[in-house]
Amino acid sequence: MEVIKTDIEGVVIIEPRIFKDARGYFFESFSQREFDEKIGHIEFCQDNESMSSYGVMRGLHFQRPPYTQSKLVRCVKGAVLDVAVDIRKGSPTYGKHVAVELTEDNHRQFFIPKGFAHGFAVLSETAVFQYKCDNFYHPEADGGISILDESLGIDWRIPIDKAILSEKDTKHALLKDFDSPFTF
């Protein structure tokens, strides 16, 4: 796998080595050994999958301490715009984001460390999204910032009148009103 660094330390894009022939393709979607060597040791304990239709926007979510999560995400069907926002107090990149298009064709993965809010928007008719987490989900630790916060400068590539959000995701605070539980 090739690890592509981004403008925010620790947030990386992973491109697998794909072997194609007349039968189709093959690639390793995860190797603990290679992940440890190239990114660092993370023990993933939970895999999740969601299916969504065009215009669905999920996020920007995180888990509060002591239940923080790092995530390794990918889109196995369709296309999504995936985003990580730095919410670590004192970070030189606080409030900045990295956005990457993940598709069934590019097979890219996106690693989001602890201390970041995560979200995505579905760009295709439907999308199946998978992610590994290094801590179990704890509903009492749910946290979020507004996915529509204009101060973040995220171009979600979805017209606002086509955006589909859960009720929960419409109630998250703007970054300026948010008291982050994370420090750099």
Automatic annotation (TrEMBL):
It catalyses: dTDP-4-dehydro-6-deoxy-alpha-D-glucose = dTDP-4-dehydro-beta-L-rhamnose. GO terms for cellular component: cytosol. It comes from the Bacteria. Pathway: Carbohydrate biosynthesis; dTDP-L-rhamnose biosynthesis. One of its GO terms (biological process) is dTDP-rhamnose biosynthetic process. One of its GO terms (molecular function) is dTDP-4-dehydrorhamnose 3,5-epimerase activity. Keywords: Isomerase. InterPro entries: RmlC-like, RmlC-like_jellyroll, RmlC_Cupin_sf. The record marks 137 as: Participates in a stacking interaction with the thymidine ring of dTDP-4-oxo-6-deoxyglucose. The active site is at residues 61, 131. Its EC number is 5.1.3.13. Pfam families: dTDP_sugar_isom. Belongs to the dTDP-4-dehydrorhamnose 3,5-epimerase family. Catalyzes the epimerization of the C3' and C5'positions of dTDP-6-deoxy-D-xylo-4-hexulose, forming dTDP-6-deoxy-L-lyxo-4-hexulose. Homodimer. This is dTDP-4-dehydrorhamnose 3,5-epimerase. It comes from Leyella stercorea.
